[in-house]
Fold each of these.
Amino acid sequence: MTKKEQLSRAPRVKKEMPKKKRGLRTTKSRTSRTNKKKATQKRKPILMPLTKLDNLVWKITSLAFRLQDSDRQGFVKCCTCGNKMYYYKSDAQLGHFKSRSAKWTKFLRKNLSTQDTKCNKYGAGEQFKFGKFLDRTYGAGTAEAMMTYANKPEKFGRYEYKKHLLENSRILLDEAKSRRLYDWKSGMAKWELDFLEKLDDYNIDEEIIIHKQRV
Ligand SMILES: [Zn+2]
């Protein structure tokens, strides 16, 4: 073997060794991880992370109540300035009277109404006008009741999320059906639409699995 050959062979051997080792180790550990994962999934699906659940309930609530606030053609007035707009994909937003950081009132019909961006975003929700609107619509004292309800000391947990999810999903489907307005479906993921399609199969007192996760 010439010196040149020795030099060119030596690094090749060195290179092959760790490559094989790495390959073996990776394959083995990946397989065992997958098996473990499969076994866990068979036993019980994982819990849906609360942020994902919160986003899902909000997405459905926002569509359901904007649709409910709108007329037969899907046009809705901002509750704090009267500006008229289309409920979907214009500047229509579902605004909160008591801010969205309070969970007990975050998805509650009487704390929510459609607003335009001017009032909801740039007007920081126009809370004073919003409160007047609530009292006019649902009766005197509603705004105050919302403030009290928002501060409930009990924990807002998965049961409460589940309750709002099922109730507001039902509203979304009923309001969409009565107006024959389904353009909102284009903004939904397949798993979200699958859930809505099977809504009648779900029960508040039973385990709910969405997107292969427990709610
Ligand atoms: Zn407005």
Amino acid sequence: MNIMKTVSLAFVTAVALSSVAPSQAELLPGDARRGAEIYAQRCVMCHGENGDGNGGMAANFLEEWYRFTKTDEELAESIRNGFRSEGKSYAAGSMPPQLMNNRDLEDVIAYLRSRFGEGRSLSLPE
Ligand code: HEC
């Protein structure tokens, strides 16, 4: 095989691999501190600085602990594709789909878990 063929084959393979839909890629453990910055930029207006849902605007993470009995994949699905519960009503209506890469998703989920999930451990500087 000549060199050009080898190079173009490598290129085609790389393109094929990188086109795997992000939602199918496995989630890795995230960085909660980086996730805190994402939360502050993209989630705080609805979920509130301390996660209380801004007076009924959105899910109150302090009370709705059952949200964090879901797996990372389920939470990722809710964040990426949007989510609406049966029989609940929030001023924002529903969780709007977020355009987010896997790393940002992993980090924001790590943040949510460490701050609001079972056995929460993260204490952030005020
Ligand atoms: C426009 C307001 C709004 C924004 C912005 C928003 N959310 Fe939500 N979110 C909601 C509402 C409303 C719900 C409750 C939906 C329901 O259960 O009916 C919700 C629910 C959730 C849930 C629970 C999903 C489940 O499966 O139970 C998670 C997790 C979540 N949001 C994470 C985030 C993250 C992370 C961000 C920022 C990247 C974000 N939200 C930004 C409104 C918002």
